[in-house]
Amino acid sequence: MSGLSPLASLLQQLPSMNPHLHLTILFLSLTTGGLCILGLQAEATRSDKLSLPGFENLTAGYNKFLRPNFGGDPVQIALNLDIASISSISESNMDYTATIYLRQRWTDPRLLFEGSKSFTLDARLVEFLWVPDTYIVESKTSFLHEVTVGNRLIRLFSNGTVLYALRITTTVACNMDLSKYPMDTQTCRLQLESWGYDGRDVEFRWLRGNDSVRGLENLRLAQYTIQRYFTLVTQSQQETGNYTRLVLQFELRRNGLYFILETYVPSAFLVVLSWVSFWISLDSVPARTCIGVTTVLSMTTLMIGSRSPLPNTNCFIKAIDVYLGICFSFVFGALLEYAVAHYSSVQQMVAKDRATAKEVEEVNITDIINSSLSTLKRKISFASIEMPGDNVDYSGLTMKARDKVSFVFREKMGRMVRYFTIQNPSNVDRYSKLLFPLMFMLTNVFYWAHYMYF
């Protein structure tokens, strides 16, 4: 009896016990057995989570919280990228959105196995392995695609190499210089770096240099053309240490044909249209005024429309703003030209009327004076009094100094007014027909030479 367990001894004594006590002991025994079974199942589940199912011999003692070569040499992680698409490039937000396939390779000596085969594992087994904490520098928003399952891949090689691939869509900041918009070239970057492991623990490198990036040469963008791209490996110095940073830098050249047809050509046509008024008579006030006001309002509408796609970048003086400002100046100048010519014509007509009235008045006064003098001479001749002739000696007359200064000042001002007064208003239109097109052509030459080649 000494070899029996307490539970077995108690079961042997059941027949001699009270029936109620018998039922109580039987219930306790069943409950204790159920708890033991649940404990064994929980222990089995816990042991499964500590190892890779099917690879228990490889992951015995494996700790996913410690990097490979922990305490030793840094882990060498090789990266390569496939750029699937660049869906949008925003000048107002100064960023771009791209979908990329990110592939990372490193060697983990703890995962060595015999043979030459490689095994592709379910992506959910990533939770059992150590993976690098790579992040995208200057990323605003990013997400991992989850349809139909998480777009991740894990592949193990016999030499301990691990391939970890992800499909990511990210929006990355890109500082843009819009001073030459829409003839600009923007330089954007995609930078990858470890979040927590510095250079003593993890070192990044490109798998095949510039050939590590694929897909950019095949992209077709709405407004841009990718001119060139290259890869760099730099060091990022931060307060927590020095980190290895991989940089993909690419240049985007904007396609300007759309803007030439949408903005530049219409604005140039409006300038040419404003010159039509030079061939219309100065007397046709409604026609010339209508052309001038219409072209000015059309240029204003065109300037407002060119700014609407970039509402947050109006603080920049862009190349297109400069050109529209030039065209607006020429259109407004044509309207002012007519105002000057018409004003000069009116002033000339008023001056002619004044001159005619003055001549008539002087003739009348001269006739009256001559008749009066002749009558007076006849009356005095009877008394033998001789009247002096027209030759009168004024040498004895003098003029005050203040009167002399006033007379000289009026004379000078009269000369200046006559110098700046347009004697023939029709010459304004004649000269404008030549000067306006010539100045506009020279301005275009300097404008396009500056923004295209400098």
UniProtKB/TrEMBL annotation:
KW Chloroplast (keyword) present: no
Gene: GABRP
Chain ranges of the Neurotransmitter-gated ion-channel transmembrane domain: 263-351
PANTHER family per record: NEUROTRANSMITTER GATED ION CHANNEL
Lineage: Eukaryota, Metazoa, Chordata, Craniata, Vertebrata
Transmembrane segments: 20-40, 257-280, 286-304, 316-336, 434-453
Location of the protein in the cell: Cell membrane
A Pfam family recorded for this sequence: Neur_chan_memb
Protein name: Gamma-aminobutyric acid receptor subunit pi isoform X1
